[in-house]
Design goal:
The chain has about 270 residues and is α/β, with parallel strands linked by helices. It has 9 helices and 13 strands. The strands form 3 sheets. Strands 2-1-3-12-4-13 form a 6-stranded mixed beta sheet. It is globular.
Length: about 270
């Protein structure tokens, strides 16, 4: 009995030592530069006890592959529909640790100032990845520019492609482009549907510059903190999740992005 207790005590001590060692290590997190890395820098400022190593993503880098391969401990750049698609593509299971903010998708143009001015046969640049392409088509529908086939009612689950357009009165030409490249195409197309983070990086202000903006109400595209199932209970992940969903971070988002980024979870 005494020996068993000693073994249990030894195991508990080893576990505590491992936990302490993990807590002492910097938490490696991959994030888009704007607004995600900026928000994480603010977290570092308000919570010095949390040691974050922020790795800013560049074009062409898949942060979910980094996470799957153990190159980072978490990432912060995506929404749940995109994560679901990535899990299928990579054959991996990830864990959502926190739901933080919405970056409303917007329609932009350098050629017109109103969606009422959209010409016939206008070229529309949209993201070429499955989830954001679908999201762009739902936004075009919400703005009255196209109509999707019957049955496409739930943006989070009913993913649409250009083949699912039932009505296209202005004969819009849908041009699929890599999301980070779309802001650079603004001079070459009539309209561009741009993700909020890439719009901000390009100097656009979604709340002011977008001709049409995605609604934040019941929006399924909230950006999330993602980790692995193994790290889901890591104290560092839990602390970061708590900070990201705090009133202080929500206020930082409101003050700094003024409607272009919207906090959705405050605890």
């Amino acid at each position: 009995m005494k020996k068993s207790l000693m073994v249990i005590a030894g195991l508990a001590m080893s576990f505590n030592m491992i936990s302490s060692a993990m807590a002492a290590e910097a938490l490696r997190i991959a994030a888009d530069p704007v607004p995600h890395a900026e928000i994480l820098q603010y977290v570092k400022k308000i919570d010095p006890s949390l040691d974050l190593k922020i790795i800013e993503l560049t074009s062409g880098v898949n942060a979910n592959e980094l996470l799957a391969h153990g190159d980072v401990d978490a990432n912060y750049f995506q929404h749940v529909p995109y994560l679901r698609d990535q899990q299928k593509a990579l054959g991996q299971t990830f864990a959502v640790a926190a739901t933080v903010h919405i970056e409303p998708l917007g329609i932009y143009s350098r050629k017109i100032t109103s969606l009422q001015q959209v010409p016939n046969n206008a070229t529309v640049a949209v993201p070429n990845n499955v989830t954001n392409l679908s999201r762009a088509l739902y936004l075009l529908q919400a703005q009255g520019l196209i109509k999707l086939k019957a049955g496409f009612n739930d943006p989070a689950n009913d993913q649409a492609t250009p083949k699912d357009i039932a009505e296209n009165p202005k004969q819009l030409k849908i041009l699929e482009i890599e999301s980070p490249q779309i802001p650079r195409s603004l001079d070459d197309v009539d309209l561009a549907v741009i993700n909020g983070n890439y719009a901000l990086e390009a100097g656009l202000v979604p709340a002011k510059d977008a001709l049409g903006l995605e609604s934040a109400d019941n929006n399924p595209y909230a950006n999330i903190l993602v980790t692995t199932p193994k790290l889901a209970d890591d104290p560092r992940i839990k602390k970061l999740a708590e900070d990201l969903q705090s009133p202080k971070v929500a206020e930082f988002i409101r003050q700094n992005y003024q409607g272009s980024v919207i906090p959705v979870a405050v605890k």
